[in-house]
Amino acid sequence: MVCGGFTCSKNALCSLNxxxxxxxxxxxGVAAWGKGFGLVSSIHIIGxxxxxxxxxxxxxxxxxVGAIHHHQVMLxxxxxxxxxxxxxxxxxxxxxxAMNGGQQxxxxxxxxxxxxxxxxxxxxxxxxxxGLLDVPESQxxxxxxxxxxxxxxxxxSCHTCGDLMLTHxxxxxxxxxxxxxxxxxxxxxxxWLAVRYRNQKDPRANPSAFL
Length: 211
Fold this sequence. Notes:
By secondary structure, the chain is an all-alpha fold. It has helices at residues 6-36, 43-69, 72-98, 101-114, 117-127, 139-148, 161-198. α1 runs antiparallel to α2 (43-69), α3 runs antiparallel to α7 and α4 crosses α7 (161-198). The radius of gyration is 23 Å and the shape is elongated.
């Protein structure tokens, strides 16, 4: 059967949702692994990653069940939610690619301020650094972070964590933005497949049945 027919659309939509399920399970597994090995101790970070993984898994299950059974209502909600996710992810990905050095520093300061002290200490120990950025605007917070720092370099001379992070931030943001942009287009592909498949008639169904 030529691609574009009922069976081809069904198989393509099922395959795409299986990929989404695997990505969701991977996110959940990586978050659990990071918590188990003590790489990140913040329950907010772990919970956020797991929530994204569970959400993607649930959406993929809805799409897969809807594709297998040609369920009109499930396919409708699947394509609406996937389109909303596409808009959000596309915007975030473009923002990552367009972010300059000053914006990266401001974002890093904001994120650092929301972290728990235990998470900050974990990062300092992993990166072997102390404090975020030694700048007048946040001098008091920097001095406090250095006082609580337990990194090995403290006995000698430590780099600031902000400098180490910003060194790789541009490359990391380009990778994140590129990967996010790529997956956002797979989501719009999923929406297109769902719309196309939803409007096709099952050749095995009763010809007089109403779709």
